[in-house]
Amino acid sequence: MHIRTSLRAALAGAALFAFAGTAAAVDWRGWNIHPEGYPNTVAMEQFAEEVAEKTEGRINPTVYNGGVLGAQPDAIEQTRNGALDFANFNMGPMGPIVPATNVLSLPFLFDSVEHMHKVMDGEIGQRFSDALSEYGLVALSWFDSGSRSFYNTKKPIKTPQDVEGLKIRVMNNDLYVQMVDALGGNATPMAYGEVFQSLKTGVIDGAENNYPSFESSNHYEAAKYYSITDHLIIPECLCIAKASWDELTPQDQEIVRQAAVRAAETQRQLWAERSKASREKVEAAGVIVNEVEDKAMFQAAMQPLYETFVQENPDLEPLIMAIRETK
Ligand code: BDP
């Protein structure tokens, strides 16, 4: 009797387990703006494979590259509401949605990429993750995005005066409009996917980005002047939709978390290599790269932007201070 009962219980348990196993198997759709072979793409694909393998197919992620699932601001909304399950997002277009992340779009906030890593990998990075989670996004690791500089079809930029009158594409965030305005240029917020055509047809004169994006997007074919201002160092997250995350068992959450951390390690390593290779490639193609001797002039021009920002967001001032004080 005793044996029979436990056998029955075991069978019922097995059936339940099998059922739970099937019911819990999910297909995940992942958003990625970059093309094949880009460091972020390789890292996202590694993430997807590792998650599928380690969960033995309970989670089956697919990464959709090249922004085919939509422009970044829309993809952020879709991930927030669970229509997409995971993504690699830049914190630039995140600002209008998650206000605290606007801090990361303040020009010249970080002294260097190393400074940014130190901040984001520590307690302050956790504060940004907490802010994102209030908006339906679980940030599991931070990718590198180098530093952004201006490029254009007209001339080398050496001083803020050289930006005057240029139509410059920016990512979707009012802070970048203020940034370009402060330099006397005309900012045009525009989706990444439209920039190449707009440069070629003269709708815009320039844009700003890191070497790998300048190269992989082919913008360098149209804009022959790349001027190293290094005005923005913006981290990027590997984010999971909170709706998708909350459905996972703690064990599967751990697998996903570890895969995201490893993906970031891969991304950062590939990033360093690709930055160098991209610079070489664009220079070989005839792009004229100039170092900006006096970055302090550009920094000084950003002072009013900081003042307005702190006035409008007094609660975020301590966060800015904490970042500045991280050494
Ligand atoms: C790249 C970022 C990507 C942005 C793009 C842009 O990795 O997320 O969408 O810049 O300028 O560097 O829109």
Automatic annotation (TrEMBL):
It comes from Chelativorans intermedius. This is TRAP transporter substrate-binding protein. Keywords: Signal. It holds the Pfam family DctP. CDD domains: PBP2_TRAP_SBP_like_3 (cd13671). Residues 1-20 form the signal peptide. InterPro entries: DctP_fam, TRAP_DctP, TRAP_DctP_sf. It comes from the Bacteria. NCBIfam families: dctP (TIGR00787), TRAP_S1 (NF037995).
